[in-house]
Design goal:
The protein is α/β, with parallel strands linked by helices. The protein has helices spanning 16-31, 45-50, 62-65, 69-74, 78-106, 120-127, 158-179, 189-192, 247-254, 272-286, 320-323, 336-344, 358-367, 382-391, 395-409, 413-432; strands at 7-11, 35-40, 54-57, 110-114, 131-135, 210-212, 229-231, 260-262, 290-293, 312-315, 329-332, 349-351. Helix content is 42%, strand content 11%.
Length: 440
């Protein structure tokens, strides 16, 4: 017997920080009675399965890509960016085709997508189902309050800030065009249409709801945002109650004051040995306890010097939702997920950004009063880090981080967003049932 549960397809591309919030959202949608398929790159099947959703992979592994030397070079040089961009078009076209195929084959009742997976808007037009755009950074709704957060821009004033969003949107559309070339024979002109696919699709022609998946503790809702931009709060995963840490980690945490956490996740460093040495030197001079996460090349910590063996604990990974509450402060790269997770537990942060939206999140942490001014990773010195380590102990930072945590606790989050999506689906389905499917 065919299931009567509504089917929701979530399309998201990127590293763990681009997938985990959607897995949390998927879990809440499943709890409310939906079938959920999460279409993303390789490496996340277990996470998605634990949420009760069904994973469907497209042919890309972003975390493996970040390990590739040419991609690492692209993070730090213009020449590297050009080389990778030229090489990756055919690979991105393959991913785009896989997203298009997955949406058509799954035949969902509603689609949620991040902007890297915008092609599914066109599939929604063909299927005559809603497609709702979602973002984890404020990149889709223009505002004069702050610049587009993707390029490390300073505040340019209200007029230029808004103009920057229009320019970014044009760049996104230009970037999508070559990826659709292999699908030209399958996408008719009426499906392509004049409407911007970044805005999603509603079968009745109305404006699609745009889910802004970040916290008002960091970004108060701008007054010049359109009504359809809904600030939901961040989509946190629930803490894993089954997680069992290593006994020696528990012993370390219990053996003294709460340590500071230092880790840069999936972000590689251009000179990981130098960065590691700098961090260890600062810790040896401050005498602070620390949990140091090796990550993927950001840090190359091997054997600790004798002076730090009782002060620093090295880990490969641990759930942030388990570890951060046990730390005094967080030093990280400024990804949206880590930034929100630190404040979720009321912990002050120092952001050492590498690229993209990370400088923006660092500035928002500082503006909220929950941490010192960000220091770009490539500019970090031992002296600066020593000052920052001491600064994280300033009571005002902890107080403001706790205030941010209280704001986050009262936001809709993944649970509230899921409830709204289900209501949206119920309304949209009534309209869809009355309209014919678009010509194929």
């Amino acid at each position: 017997m065919a299931s009567t549960k509504p089917k929701i397809l979530i399309a998201t591309l990127g590293t763990r920080g681009d997938v985990q919030p959607y897995a949390a959202l998927a879990g809440e949608l499943v709890r409310l009675g939906a079938q959920v398929v999460v279409v993303t790159g390789h490496g996340f099947d277990s996470m998605i399965g634990k949420a009760g959703a069904r994973p469907r992979s497209v042919p890309v592994d972003y975390e493996a890509l970040l390990r590739a030397p040419e991609v690492r070079e692209a993070l730090f040089t213009v020449r590297g960016k050009i080389r990778v961009a030229r090489k990756s078009v055919s690979e991105q076209q393959e991913v785009t085709r896989a997203l298009w195929t997955a949406a058509l084959e799954e035949k969902p009742d509603l689609i949620l997508f991040n902007l890297k997976a915008t092609v599914v808007t066109l599939a929604a037009r063909r299927l005559n189902v809603p497609a709702l755009p979602t973002v984890l950074q404020p990149v889709s709704a223009a505002t004069g309050d702050f610049p587009v957060p993707l390029f490390g821009l300073p505040d340019l004033g209200r007029t230029l800030n808004r103009a920057g969003y229009l320019a970014a949107r044009k760049l996104m559309r230009l970037g999508l065009a070559p990826l659709l070339k292999p699908l030209k024979s399958e996408i008719s002109d009426d499906i392509l249409g004049p409407e911007d696919p970044l805005d999603g699709h509603m079968p009745d022609g109305s404006q699609a709801l745009s889910l802004q998946g970040f916290s008002s503790a960091l970004i108060p809702r701008p007054e010049d945002w359109p009504d359809h931009a809904w600030l939901t709060g961040y989509w946190f995963s629930k803490p894993d109650r089954k997680y069992q840490p290593k006994l020696d980690l528990l012993q370390f945490l219990d053996s003294g004051p709460a340590p500071v956490y230092v880790g840069f996740g999936s972000m590689p460093s251009r000179k990981p040995d130098d960065l590691t040495g700098l961090i260890l030197s600062a810790l040896s001079q401050t005498g602070q306890r620390a949990v140091l996460a090796r990550g993927w090349g950001g840090l190359n910590a091997g054997e600790l010097p004798d002076v730090l063996k009782d002060k620093v604990y090295l880990i490969d990974k641990a759930p942030h939702s388990w570890l951060f509450p046990r730390c005094s402060g967080i030093i990280h790269h400024g990804g949206a997920g880590t930034t929100h997770e630190a404040l979720r537990w009321g912990k002050p942060s120092l952001v050492c950004p590498v690229f993209a939206d990370q400088p923006f999140w660092g500035s928002r942490v500082h503006k909220s009063g929950a941490g010192p001014a960000p220091i770009p990773q490539h500019k970090l010195t031992t002296g600066q880090l020593i000052k920052a380590l001491y600064a994280l102990d300033v009571p005002a930072y902890a107080d403001n981080a706790q205030k941010a945590a209280e704001v986050m606790q009262n936001e809709p989050g993944a649970e509230g967003a899921a409830k709204q999506i289900m209501k949206h689906l119920e309304t949209a389905n009534r309209v869809t049932a009355e309209r014919p499917i678009a010509a194929q």
